[in-house]
């Protein structure tokens, strides 16, 4: 039976890289996208060109009113493409950042982070629990910013800290079903996140490298491979853990 992974925010950045990594290990992929259907289709095409199977579904993970219909669409897709009613791996990856001091953060910005990074993660997971195969695995995305602090990321870091607590509770509840639930917390990675600041601004990249034990900023492959190993590796006994993939940033 083909294993299947659902990856939110899989059309770009770390979600895209994760989709490619798991597909390369003979895993079917369902990825979600918010607005860029062309980017999502490009990921699907790349996976299928390499001999894999993938499909893209639109979803705003910050809008809980969409989750019931999304679950129905996902069920139909699983049956149509893979002849299954369940999937094996779930990656809560979709998200966005806000760079503002505590004094400058608006309620609108704060609520947007809550809706996507906390409320959305909680209630989308809740909605999809009946579709996750017993013995499956869930990876929630956090951030190094939940451990160390940098100016301007108080609200974002707080959301990710909440995700880490949620992960431990989820692991406890899903343990009887044999479902392992863990957090992967990336450090500063060279993607388009935050306007591509780590990737495109040399001075920022140099600062990250200077504060990291491995001497460089992270790359998408660093995180995609880590998530894939948590999903497809043989260590089912690892659950409720926070795995930081930062190259040793701000030790």
Quick tags:
7 strands; alpha/beta; 7-stranded parallel sheet; 251 residues; Rossmann fold; globular
Describe this structure in words.
The longest helix is centred in the middle third of the chain and has 22 residues, at 107-128. A seven-stranded parallel beta sheet has the order 3-2-1-4-5-6-7, sandwiched between helices. Helices cover 43% and strands 18% of the residues. The protein has 251 residues and is of the alpha/beta class. It has helices at 13-23, 37-49, 67-82, 107-128, 154-174, 197-200, 202-210, 220-232; strands at 3-7, 27-33, 54-58, 87-92, 132-141, 180-186, 242-245.
Instruction: Output the helix-strand order.
Output: EHEHEHEHEHEHHHE
Structural class: alpha/beta
Major sheet size, sense and barrel closure: 7 strands, parallel
Contiguous low-pLDDT stretches (5 residues minimum) are none
Cα-atom Rg, whole angstroms? 17 Å
Arithmetic mean pLDDT? 94
CATH architectural arrangement: 3-Layer(aba) Sandwich
Task: Note the quaternary state here.
Answer: single chain
User: Count of DSSP E strands?
Assistant: 7
The span between the termini is 43 Å
Q: What fold name goes in the CATH topology slot?
A: Rossmann fold
**CATH 4th-level superfamily:** NAD(P)-binding Rossmann-like Domain
Strand content: 15-25%
Helix content: 40-55%
Major sheet: arrangement of strands: 3-2-1-4-5-6-7
CATH secondary-structure class: Alpha Beta
Instruction: Assign an overall shape.
Output: globular
Structurally, how many domains make up the residues?
1
Number of helices: 8
